[in-house]
Design brief:
Shape: globular
Largest sheet: 8 strands, parallel, barrel
Helix content: 25-40%
Order of helices and strands: EEEEEEHEHHHEHEHEHEHHEHEHEEHHHE
Oligomer: single chain
Strand order of the largest sheet: 6-7-8-9-10-11-12-13
Structural class: alpha/beta
Number of strands: 16
Radius of gyration: 20 Å
Length: about 375
């Protein structure tokens, strides 16, 4: 239903995760019999969690730990780990910066060139641990560095930007041909973000194995302030899930995974993302709060150090518990920030669903009051 903003403009009502709630059915289950398993291509994970390719969230060490815990850690191949031999020293510097000068100094720190040999070394470190290897590049950098990634070997490749389209128009550089690029790769590719049915459907037609849903919705993002662009996540995930359904019919049975990426600050948000149709979630802030996260209580994304128009900032999110405890508990607080997977499992059990695909059919309501 459209709403009239003024005589010349109408708008569609969209909902965030805060606007909705899941409701129980006639059946309940024991949490122990609920499965959180998630598979994409030939890869199977025991939890539907992808750690976002952000320097404050994923280092080679945390990618290994997340893999050991049953999820997938994606290393930012444009981050500090591929620019500096001693990335830890730069991480400490960033966290110690005062708020007033943080953006300018981060722009300087991230002006150091990306080194292909460090891409190989970091990915090799993760592979040596025996966990799935995943790396991410922005669409702008994929042309330049994808060969180094492929030579090093990855199990899954992520092309992630604030927004990624199947049709990018440029007069100065040759745009990345997503369809051709994905066709020539031997590994599954996840692309995004996308926030609308049409954009997601076009990305699915490129051959992507998964689509990231979100646009500037994280705690460290200022995209809405800078560009005036925002995608309320409940509506965005539902729209992209509809594109997945229609593409499944159009392609004769090819299933593309929907991955919610942004606005997932609590376990309740993760629950609602799956309820709206997500197969998995990409987590940034929630994992940055871990005591063993590389950001040491600080959090930022690539938008925070853009050389021309920063659309993010370094924020202090604090430290709550080790990564394993953040994911699996026990929790000593009641705010949905610790034991994320325990909360998802219990919500599924309470509403009577045994696995993630079933839970996508749960009833939801528009909540008449804020959560809390």
């Amino acid at each position: 239903m459209e709403i009239e903003i003024g005589r010349a403009k109408r708008a569609r009502r969209a909902y965030s995760f805060d606007d909705i709630a899941v409701v129980p059915s006639r059946r309940t289950r024991d949490p122990e019999v609920v499965s959180l398993n998630w598979s994409i291509d030939a890869l199977t994970f025991s939890i539907p969690v992808i750690a976002a390719p952000m320097d404050s969230v994923v280092s080679p060490a945390t990618a290994i730990e997340i893999g050991r815990l049953g999820g997938l850690g994606v290393l930012d191949l444009e981050g500090l780990w591929t620019r500096y031999e001693d990335a830890d020293a730069q991480l400490e510097r960033i966290c110690e910066l005062d708020d007033a000068g943080a953006t300018a100094e981060m722009q300087r720190i991230y002006s150091e060139p990306i080194k292909p040999e460090l891409i190989s070394a970091r990915l090799a470190e993760i592979r040596a641990a025996g966990v799935p290897v995943a790396g991410a590049l922005s669409p702008q950098r994929t042309h330049e560095h994808h060969q180094a990634v492929l030579d090093a070997g990855v199990d899954l490749f992520v092309i992630r930007g604030t927004t990624v389209s199947a049709e990018h128009v440029s007069q100065s550089v040759e745009p990345l041909n997503l369809k051709k690029f994905i066709y020539e790769l031997d590994v599954p590719v996840i692309v995004g973000g996308a926030a609308t049915y049409t954009a997601a459907l076009h990305l699915m037609r490129t051959g992507a194995a998964g689509v990231l849903v979100g646009f500037g919705g994280g705690a460290a993002s200022t995209t809405r302030l800078s560009l005036g662009i925002h995608a309320p996540m409940a509506t965005a995930v539902s729209d992209v899930a509809a594109a997945r359904r229609d593409y499944l019919d159009e392609s004769g049975g090819r299933y593309v995974h929907v991955i919610a990426d942004g606005g997932l600050g609590t376990s309740g948000d993760i629950v609602k993302a799956v309820a709206m149709g997500a197969d998995a979630v990409m987590l940034g802030t929630t994992l940055a709060r871990a005591t063993d996260a590389p950001g040491k209580g600080c959090h930022w994304g690539a938008e925070a150090h853009h050389p021309e128009l920063p659309r993010g900032r370094r924020v202090k999110v604090g430290q709550l518990a080790p990564l394993e405890q953040v994911l699996f508990g026990p929790s000593e607080t009641a705010d949905g920030q610790v034991n994320l997977m325990g909360a998802l499992r219990r919500s599924m059990a309470t509403t009577g669903y045994s696995d993630l695909k079933e839970f996508q059919r749960v009833d939801v309501v528009v909540a008449p009051y804020p959560a809390g």
